[in-house]
Amino acid sequence: MRVKAQVTERVEPGIVFMTFHFAEAAANLLTNPALD
């Protein structure tokens, strides 16, 4: 999976946020096999 990253100071260090509501890009697969 390739995504663009935006580095910001708005979240704590070590935290990654990725939108996960696009069915064609199942971000859940990065952490576990469950799908919403």
Fraction of residues in helix: under 10%
Low-confidence stretches are: none
Number of helices: 0
How large is the share of residues in beta strands?
under 5%
Mean pLDDT: 77
Q: Assign the structural class, choosing from mainly alpha, mainly beta, alpha/beta, alpha+beta, or little secondary structure.
A: little secondary structure
Biggest β-sheet description = none
Q: How many strand elements?
A: 0
Q: What is the CA–CA distance across the termini? A: 18 Å
**Rg over alpha carbons:** 11 Å
Coarse shape: elongated
What topology emerges from the helices and strands here?
Elements lengths: L36
Give a verbal description of the structure:
- By secondary structure, the chain is mostly loops.
- Helix content is 0%, strand content 0%.
- The chain is elongated.
Short description:
This protein has about 35 residues and is low in regular secondary structure. The protein has no helix or strand. It is elongated, with a radius of gyration of 11 Å.
Provide keyphrases for this structure:
elongated; single chain; little secondary structure
